[in-house]
């Protein structure tokens, strides 16, 4: 196969309008938090990007009070049509500032600019557009006439899709009439603070949206605050369980989007080249930092060898490197801690007898990178088949019969997503029915849309985000 | 049960009393523990000895419920509706026995007890009619911005542990059980401690209708003793705390967290079961599955 050399095509860092320091956003104002400021780092270079003010437990209390006041006095009683217009404004402002947001997201998170630009930012805008239209139509959501908001929502989001997860959380909450206090992840707070500026530009009433950067302790203080009516969390299953325990007995509402270990099932009649693209997208999109990543590839034995060869050839072409380069396919691992975890689990794969294949791609000299890796001869009992790696590491298992495929796919406490590849329509529907997962992608993978509910079965959490089902999480119904 | 419950005849006759057992996997075993406890009427007179289920009985019931799940959740909605309607027919046939038990346990006059039993039957019919409508009402076709066909269907969560209401021995019981199985879940139910008799008579109805074994499993005994095992059981997917002892509820929720169970929280006081139900009981123990497929030629 001929190889084409690419000239560097870096996006300009200046577009991010990066400032040396950022403040938190409480009651409509940017303020210095009383927590210890944190330094956010560009994972591609390990250089400090900016200093960010963080919240202390006292600030959490101030923010919750601001959200309560805004809820009682303004937002909770505002007609839905007016609320909706604010959301439309926010959606438009995200579009207007999309280039800035995409570059900033890429810098802070390490994700390839093409993913931030083509997926994260447009989908975030789409979430505000979609939910804006719900604000004055909640009577039609199917939960009875005049459904009421819950009140103040505490929202804690992860570092893998900082702006998109913010949109998934804030858009439905505001559309339903709630006010929010959101804590972005410790390593990726910047786009949330630019979003706060967008709230200012949208002239959103003070206190409706509050953004509190900080570490896990601030998240814990926020979800435990007694004046919070609803908690929404996206992150690890372990932390999700801890939050559930914190809220036990309080009667406060909770939705959780937790981890996953998705099976991507390839039957012998699958369109193999198309499947290869889907498998690559399923596990290497966003460096594999995706809770619904297709991290367990289940291939029918008769095509396993052929598929694996095609997969290696294709993966070897993935360009790993500078996230700001428009030709980069796989960017940087978000943090040193996460890189260590990926290394540890991959080493466990070696130790337990799986066969490791690593892409021969060159890696940058500095920064946090991990070459795309495929483990074959994986057994269900291995850690790499059971635990969420959250990195560009694929585990390949085989099966002989459709029943065996489904049984292996469901053999996990998780149930977030699954993939099915076959040209036979009836088999797709058969498999989709039997897979215990909240999202099933057939002959495609990693598709998201604000109209399509997303969320898990079993230990992948409860509640949905998106669509009519997603509104339930923010309504008293 | 005492002869007061048998309609009076001229000649005195000693009634044949019923031994109440458990209902697990379609069978009526005694408790593995061999224990029973005394059930009294509202005035304190002896009604029956009820089986005092143990932790082992909980585990057996969960195993039976898991075994029943594939068949019940995989049955067509039409079929599930037929089976549930058949249960309503059988309830109607046992009307008098239920009225007698409700009178005795709840200390109600015959008119009120009759009304409750009639409402119970009607409630069961209401839920029987939901089996093939829930997907239409809660499901969706998603107009995604791309060349994909995307739809969302509700599916049952799995095995649900139910702590039945403590006061309402029949209408409350049916109001919590029927929505769970109407959506295709299977259930392990712990009855009211003081008023367990209608639960076991309901079990006899379920056993002789066409409901497959294991879909509903009913335990009598102490919720305080049994609830923690249900809440912490890794193969239970959901927990209805309606009849859970209030003091235990936070502890049960914490236990349920270890496997991310779906939990229906207990209301502050027992609801008025005569009110028309909302969809919440149907919604709590379902999942939404979204399926995507490319559109093209």
Automatic annotation (TrEMBL), chain A:
Keyword hit for Oxidoreductase: yes
GO molecular function, a single term: aldehyde dehydrogenase (NAD+) activity
EC number: 1.2.1.3
Any Pfam family: Aldedh
Entry keyword annotation includes Cell membrane: no
InterPro entries, A to Z: Ald_DH/histidinol_DH, Ald_DH_C, Ald_DH_CS_GLU, Ald_DH_N, Aldehyde_DH_dom
Keywords: Oxidoreductase
Family recorded in the similarity comment: Belongs to the aldehyde dehydrogenase family.
Record's protein name: Putative aldehyde dehydrogenase AldA
Originating organism: Actinoalloteichus hoggarensis
From TrEMBL, chain B:
Transmembrane segments: none
Domain of life: Bacteria
Keywords: Oxidoreductase
EC number of the protein: 1.2.1.8
Domain Aldehyde dehydrogenase: 33-264
Species per Swiss-Prot/TrEMBL record: Actinoalloteichus hoggarensis
GO molecular function, one term: betaine-aldehyde dehydrogenase (NAD+) activity
Pfam families from the UniProt entry: Aldedh
Protein name: NAD/NADP-dependent betaine aldehyde dehydrogenase
Enzyme superclass (EC): oxidoreductase
Coiled-coil residue windows: none
């Amino acid at each position: 196969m001929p190889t084409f050399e690419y000239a560097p095509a870096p996006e300009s860092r200046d577009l991010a309008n990066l400032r040396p320091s950022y403040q938190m956003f409480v009651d409509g104002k940017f303020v210095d938090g009383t927590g210890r400021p944190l330094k956010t780092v560009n994972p591609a270079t390990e250089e400090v990007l900016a200093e960010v003010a963080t919240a202390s437990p006292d600030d959490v209390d101030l923010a919750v009070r601001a959200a309560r006041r805004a809820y009682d006095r303004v937002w909770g009683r505002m007609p839905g049509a007016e609320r909706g217009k604010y959301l439309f404004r926010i959606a438009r402002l995200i579009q207007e500032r999309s280039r800035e947001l995409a570059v900033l997201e890429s810098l802070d998170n390490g994700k390839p600019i093409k993913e931030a630009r083509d997926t994260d930012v447009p989908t975030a805008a789409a979430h505000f557009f979609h939910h804006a239209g719900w604000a004055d139509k909640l009577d039609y959501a199917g939960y009875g006439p005049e459904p009421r908001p819950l009140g103040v929502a505490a929202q804690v989001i992860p570092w893998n899709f900082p702006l998109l997860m913010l949109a998934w959380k804030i858009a439905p909450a505001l559309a339903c009439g709630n006010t929010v206090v959101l804590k972005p992840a410790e390593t990726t707070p910047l786009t949330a603070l630019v979003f706060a500026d967008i709230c200012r530009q949208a002239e959103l009433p003070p206190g409706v949206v509050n953004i509190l950067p900080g570490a896990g302790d601030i998240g814990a203080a926020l979800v435990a605050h007694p004046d919070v009516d609803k908690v929404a969390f996206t992150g690890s299953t372990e932390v999700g369980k801890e939050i559930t325990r914190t809220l036990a007995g309080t009667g406060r509402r909770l939705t959780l989007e937790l981890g996953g270990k998705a099976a991507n099932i390839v039957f012998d009649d699958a369109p193999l080249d198309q499947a290869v693209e889907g498998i690559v997208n399923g596990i290497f999109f966003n460096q594999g930092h995706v809770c619904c990543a297709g991290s367990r590839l289940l291939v029918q034995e008769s095509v396993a060898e052929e598929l694996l060869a095609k997969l290696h050839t294709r993966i070897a072409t993935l360009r790993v490197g500078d996230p700001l380069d428009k030709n980069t396919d796989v960017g940087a691992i978000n943090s040193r801690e996460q890189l260590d975890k990926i290394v540890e689990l991959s080493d466990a794969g070696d130790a337990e007898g799986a066969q490791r294949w690593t892409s021969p791609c060159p890696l940058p000299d500095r920064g946090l990178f991990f070459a795309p890796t495929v483990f074959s001869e994986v057994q269900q009992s291995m850690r790499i088949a059971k635990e969420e790696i959250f990195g560009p590491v694929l585990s390949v298992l085989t099966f002989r019969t459709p029943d065996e495929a489904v049984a292996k796919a469901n053999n996990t406490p998780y149930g977030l997503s699954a993939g099915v590849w076959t040209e036979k329509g009836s088999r797709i529907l058969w498999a989709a029915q039997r897979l215990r997962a909240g999202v099933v992608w057939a002959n495609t993978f990693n598709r998201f849309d604000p109209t399509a509910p997303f969320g898990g079965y079993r230990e992948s959490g409860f509640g949905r985000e998106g669509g009519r089902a997603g509104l339930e999480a923010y309504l008293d119904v | 049960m005492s002869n007061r419950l048998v309609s009076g005849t001229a000649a005195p006759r000693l009634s044949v009393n019923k031994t109440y057992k458990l209902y697990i996997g379609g069978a009526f075993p005694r408790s593995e523990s061999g224990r029973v406890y005394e059930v009294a009427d509202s005035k304190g007179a002896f009604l029956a000895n009820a089986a005092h289920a143990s932790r082992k009985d909980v585990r057996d019931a969960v195993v039976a419920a898991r075994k029943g799940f594939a068949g019940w959740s995989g049955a067509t909605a039409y079929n599930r509706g037929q089976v549930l309607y058949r249960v309503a027919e059988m309830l109607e046939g046992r009307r008098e026995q239920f009225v007698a038990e409700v009178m005795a346990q709840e200390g109600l006059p015959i008119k009120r007890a009759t009304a409750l039993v009639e409402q119970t039957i009607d409630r069961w019919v209401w839920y029987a009619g939901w089996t093939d409508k829930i997907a239409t009402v809660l499901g969706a076709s998603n107009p995604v911005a791309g060349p994909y066909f995307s739809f969302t269907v509700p599916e049952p969560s799995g095995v649900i542990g139910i702590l039945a209401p403590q006061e309402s021995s029949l209408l409350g019981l049916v109001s919590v059980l029927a929505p769970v199985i109407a959506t295709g879940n299977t259930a392990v139910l712990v009855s009211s401690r003081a008023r367990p008799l209608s639960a076991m008579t309901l079990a006899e109805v379920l056993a002789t209708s066409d409901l497959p074994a294991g879909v509903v499993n009913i335990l009598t005994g102490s919720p305080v003793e049994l609830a923690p095992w249900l809440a912490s059981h890794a193969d239970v997917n959901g927990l209805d705390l309606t009849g859970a002892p209030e003091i235990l509820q936070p502890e049960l929720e914490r236990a349920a967290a270890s496997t991310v169970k779906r939990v229906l929280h207990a209301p502050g006081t027992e609801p008025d079961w005569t009110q028309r139900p909302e969809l919440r009981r149907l919604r709590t123990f379902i999942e939404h599955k979204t399926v995507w497929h490319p559109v093209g030629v």
